[in-house]
Amino acid sequence: MIIGIPKQALVNRIIPKDRFNFQDATKINRIRWLGKLAPTTINLPAKTIPEIQIFSVEMPEFDEKVIVRILDKVPQVILFIVNDELAAMRYDNQVIMKEMAGSLEIRGITLDDVRDNFVRQLLDLSDLSQPLAQQITQVREIQRLQLEINKLNQQITRTVQTNKRQALARKRYEFEQELRRLNNQNQRRNK
Fold it and tell me: Which DSSP state fits 87?
């Protein structure tokens, strides 16, 4: 199991698929409510998040639309375990996913901290000195720069004229320098 749920937080109930009105319910084998992390179950205070649900979703082929559909129907913070190999969670209106080699740890002194630490583990962020929102902004910027570099690489290979290729290469170099700077900042903070 990707996450060790304390005994008092275990729920372990199967949720009927028809509650979510999926367009194609055959994509999903089973949805199980594994646990509920709340002040009454794990003895941590809640600030803005009253509880964190843990759902297990078994499906032959992963489809992010299934996760989004469940999140739309259940307006709570949910940690998804998909096929016991992938973890997913929504943060700041974005679903964050990661294939898990190890296990997720329940860490924090409040439920908000526990949720933030789940997100940090999914994004491989170890720096606790910075606010999570700021770290996610940096991760998104790194992803944006990498996407721009990939687009420029494709344009360079398709462009025939040398002067246009050189202009694209200069632009790519600027993005690469910015990406290197951001990655170096993250490495220094994570040490």
Answer: E
